[in-house]
Write a structure and sequence with these properties.
It is built from 13 helices and 15 strands. It is α+β, with helices and mostly antiparallel strands and 463 residues long. The two termini are 39 Å apart. Bound molecules: S-adenosylmethionine.
């Protein structure tokens, strides 16, 4: 059962439930029932009794108005304190994480309201049409687990600070994993060594299909930053603000980790490829061997060979219509990145509505000014918890609204209705017209945001 705390308890994870077991034909692996009749959770059958590692404090207090994906609003902020019930020394579990610029957050959609989910859902971008739940990022899925790639702003003791998030306040978080482009992005897939015939020196350039000019912005950024050939294991962006560095304690950890990581990128790859990487000599051999093999295999290539043709894909060729381009041999992986991207169905990028223009009425402008100056006027600090300035608050409101946060239903049937949402301490009232959203009022959010875990709030209001 999924409870308000986000804990997925054993009864809902019973492996004999139709959802959990349909199609799984391993009768010998079914778990035994306890004398009381409960089904024993068993890792081997995939029955996981989860325990949130923490509860998110987020600038979004409710689902309404929360961005549908983290990329929509880069000023959206949150923090997560690892619970002491998980690790006695939570800070130990975060050691080294500050070396990464982005993290995956796995969480429970604890405010779904009910556990039922349908095989076909209506994602907003399909404007009422249906598609299979597993081809969407819908919160309503058999296991209500969400996955968000967030920017890691800083690590402080046992707490991480994030931006670019799409989760609401109180979201139970199950796990954090570092984002490693080399593993997590198809642009960076590394050919298994076996596929390169080293002995015969037949390292022919891989044929890759170019696709999709509209790459994920992070990837675009990586690509644009990659003017010089770079070692491919390193994806760290420098933190934007120096004050966002970890505390002194973490600096020590940082150095330790840095020592390990200084030699890590190539070592990591050679290790992954099963090559000895301890001695420089072996490493350079491995490097020599790997050079041409590091060309990536694109999904497009795979799809051409093995999969039935997709209906309609957002394959926007760069400099040609899906032509097949050889990637030059000896091209460092980052450079090869530029040659091809991942493929998604067109509807993912073809929003049913254009990006909306956002405007503020003079009244709303005054409200924003007023709200900003309510905090600590002497030090010029706004009364926001998460935003660092009124300007950031304005950008966040614009970002949320320009992506049109309304459901397809509301967009079609409730066109002249007011729309409300809360972000940080601002309660925003607006309405939507043809191609625009207009902010009418911005008031202080009256309700203090409730958090699920009985811990002190990490972000203090005003002071
Ligand atoms: C479409 S989901 C995508 C989440 C994640 N990026 C993913 O792909 O799994 C994002 C939406 O889930 C909703 N949401 C966020 N946190 C939630 C929570 N804890 N429980 C239920 N719904 C939540 C919000 O309405 C938000 O707009």
């Amino acid at each position: 059962m999924q409870t308000g705390t986000g804990r997925l308890e054993r009864v809902e994870w019973a492996p004999l439930s139709p959802v959990a077991m349909r199609g799984l034909e391993e009768p010998g692996r079914r778990p035994t029932a306890t004398p009381c009749g409960c089904v024993k959770p068993a890792l081997e059958t995939g029955n996981l009794l989860t325990e949130p590692i923490g509860y998110l404090e987020s600038c979004f207090s409710a689902k309404n108005g929360t961005p549908r994906q983290p990329s929509i609003c880069r000023h959206s902020r949150a923090c997560l304190r690892i619970r002491k019930s998980i690790f006695n020394n939570p800070e130990h579990s975060l050691m080294g994480l500050e070396e990464f610029s982005h993290v995956w957050i796995l969480f429970v959609f604890h405010k779904n309201g009910h556990l039922s989910c349908k095989a076909k859902v209506q994602p907003p971008r399909l404007n009422g049409a249906k598609t299979g739940v597993f081809s969407t990022r819908s919160p309503h899925r058999p296991n209500a687990i969400g996955l968000t790639l967030a920017k890691l702003e800083k690590v402080e003791g046992g707490t991480i600070y994030l931006s670019g998030i799409d989760m609401i306040h109180g979201t139970p978080v199950l796990d954090i994993k570092p984002y490693i482009a080399d593993y997590d992005s198809p642009q960076n897939l590394i050919e298994p060594l076996g596929e390169c015939n080293l002995q015969n020196n037949q390292n022919k350039p891989k044929i890759v299909s170019r696709s999709d000019a509209k790459t994920d912005s992070r990837v675009q950024q990586q690509l644009s930053e990659c003017e010089e050939p770079q070692p491919c294991g390193r994806t760290k962006e420098k933190p934007t603000c120096p004050e966002h560095r970890a505390s002194g304690e973490n600096d020590t950890q940082h150095k330790d980790t840095a020592k390990i990581q200084q030699r890590s990128p190539k070592h990591r790859e050679t290790a992954d490829l099963g090559l000895e990487s301890r001695s420089g000599q072996t490493l350079s051999l491995a490097e020599k061997q790997m050079g041409p093999c590091l060309l990536e295999k694109s999904f497009s290539e795979e799809s051409t060979d093995k999969r039935p043709r997709r209906r309609k894909e957002a394959v926007v060729p760069q400099g040609g219509s899906g032509e097949v381009q050889p990637v030059p041999p000896h091209c460092p992986p980052r450079m090869a990145d530029a040659a091809h991207h991942s493929v998604v169905p067109a509807w993912v990028r073809e929003a049913p509505v254009a990006t909306l223009q956002v405007r503020f009425t003079p009244h709303a402008e005054m409200d924003l000014e007023h709200l900003s100056s309510e905090g600590e006027p002497d030090v010029g600090r706004a009364s926001f918890k998460y935003f660092q300035s009124a300007e950031e608050a304005r950008h966040a409101i614009e970002a949320v609204l320009s992506a049109d946060p309304r459901s397809a239903y509301r967009r079609k049937l409730c066109q002249d209705r007011l729309f409300y949402f809360t972000v940080d301490t601002a309660h925003v009232t607006c309405w939507f017209g043809d191609g625009f959203a207009e902010v009418l009022r911005i008031k202080p959010a009256s309700e203090p945001v409730q958090i699920t875990d009985p811990v002190e709030s990490l972000v203090s209001l005003g002071s």
